[in-house]
Design goal:
By secondary structure, the protein is an alpha+beta fold. It is built from 15 helices and 13 strands. It has three domains: about 1-165, Alpha-Beta Plaits; about 170-225, DNA polymerase, domain 1, CATH 1.10.150.20; about 245-390, DNA polymerase, Y-family, little finger domain (Dna Ligase, domain 1). The chain has helices at about 15-20, 45-50, 60-65, 75-90, 115, 120-135, 145-155, 170-175, 185-195, 200-205, 210-215, 215-225, 255-280, 310-320, 360-370, and strands at about 5-10, 30-35, 40-45, 70, 95-100, 105-110, 140-145, 160-165, 245-255, 280-290, 295-305, 330-340, 345. The strands form three sheets. It has a five-stranded mixed β-sheet with strand order 5-6-1-7-8. The longest helix is centred in the C-terminal third of the chain and has 22 residues, at about 255-280. The radius of gyration is 24 Å and the shape is globular.
Length: about 400
């Protein structure tokens, strides 16, 4: 059976949500991202992109390019709400939906023709329903595999539908720049350009053995395959999460230990919440520190038992923070807390010194009243009786 894969990409998602919620912003340039001097653009509306504003651009540069734009901080809870509604629409058409981010997903439509008609018809229905039921614009691509579906949705932007049939593959891929292919980054593209190869059509003319002599057996074989639009990777409805992390760059350098520790507590709490949402426990905790001069250090520790308990994750993160010289006087511009070694929460060890009911209670309150409805209120000196991991004491019950 010939595969039919759909790729959905929401158009300028964060900015489009802001324009949806505030109709007075429609048709105006909108930039969503960090607003401080070190802020970075997360998404720009197409009206702002016309002035050269792009994602990952420093906000200061975006302001210089488009000073009359409306600059807004992100509202992730709202974006997650609408992303959930979009995924609900996709789930009506296939059980195989692979979210890549809040605004992007693959859907395997193979074998769904009896229920939803040909893939092209299902794509049109999905496109229409998202616009009518969610109120947002999206781009949809359909192809015989994930690679071609992704490239098709890029070609359909903004707000269109593009279907690539097997007989269309060579003609569609040929004119594209080689860096549009998966696995062709700046270095690979530069090396190919040295050999006069700039388009996918050029790359398709190169023998597999030659590519392997240039790039090694594995990468050379990969380039030969993607140049022909070959990709057998499956749509994975439940991709295994390998790590979870949250990090933040601060508008002003942190210089006080109490401020640094407060931020680490907050980040660890966010990681704990994500673990609960995913039904996972962590066996390793890491802390990332970046000073004002961009020196960066990452430390990690293995936990005695897997956990998602916010107090235990905070304890481990603070222990890592206090290990060695912190040098707060040098100014800390970025902090991050991450977890890895994740396992399914089929069995949750009961901690001795903290209440095991805390994670579930936090999740219940936040699910009902929003992610910011309840935060952990640690005293400045740490939980009662807690003076650091080296003393062997746990946080307050």
């Amino acid at each position: 059976m010939e595969r039919a894969i759909l790729h959905l990409d929401m158009d300028a998602f964060y900015a489009s949500v802001e324009q949806l919620d505030r109709p007075e912003l429609r048709g105006r340039p909108v930039v969503v991202g960090g607003l401080g001097p070190r802020g970075v653009v997360a998404t720009a509306s197409y009206e702002a992109r016309a002035y050269g504003v792009r994602s990952a651009m420093p906000t200061a540069k975006a302001r210089a390019l488009c000073p009359h734009a409306v600059f807004l901080p992100p509202r992730f809870a709202r974006y997650e709400e609408l992303a959930h509604r979009v995924r609900g629409i996709l789930a009506r058409y296939s059980p195989l939906v692979e979210p890549l981010s809040l605004d992007e997903a693959f859907v395997d439509l193979t074998g769904t023709e009896r229920l939803h008609g040909p893939p092209e018809e299902a794509a049109r229905e999905i496109h229409r329903r998202i616009r009518e039921e969610v109120g947002l614009s999206c781009s949809v691509g359909v192809g015989p595999n994930k690679l071609l579906a992704k490239l098709a949705s890029e070609a359909a932007k903004p707000g269109g539908i593009r279907v690539i049939r097997p007989e269309d593959v060579a003609g569609f891929l040929g004119p594209l720049p080689v860096d549009r292919l998966w696995g062709v980054g700046p270095q690979t593209a530069a090396r190919l350009a040295q050999h006069g190869i700039r388009t996918v059509g050029d790359l398709r003319e190169v023998d597999a053995g030659v590519l392997q002599s240039w790039f090694g057996p594995a990468h050379g074989a990969h380039l030969w395959r993607v140049a022909r639009g070959l990709d057998d990777s499956p749509v994975e409805a439940h991709r295994e999460v390998r790590s979870i992390s949250h990090e933040e760059t601060f508008p002003q350098d942190l210089l006080r230990v109490e401020d640094i520790e407060r931020e680490v507590r907050r980040l660890a709490d966010r990681v704990s919440a994500r673990l609960g949402e995913e039904g996972l426990l962590a066996t390793t905790v890491s802390v990332k520190i970046r000073w004002a001069d961009f020196r960066t250090r990452t430390r990690q520790v293995r936990l005695p038992e897997p956990t998602d308990h916010p107090f235990l994750l905070v304890e481990a993160a603070l222990g890592l923070l206090r290990r060695g010289e912190l040098h707060p006087e040098a100014g800390i511009r970025l902090l991050g807390v991450g977890v890895s070694g994740l396992v399914r929460a089929t069995f949750r060890p009961v901690p001795l010194f903290v209440s095991p009911a805390v994670p579930a209670a936090l999740r219940a309150v936040r699910a009902r009243h929003g992610p910011t409805a309840l935060t952990l209120g640690f005293p400045e000196e740490g939980p009662r009786g807690y003076t650091g991991p080296s003393h062997g004491k746990g946080p307050e019950r």
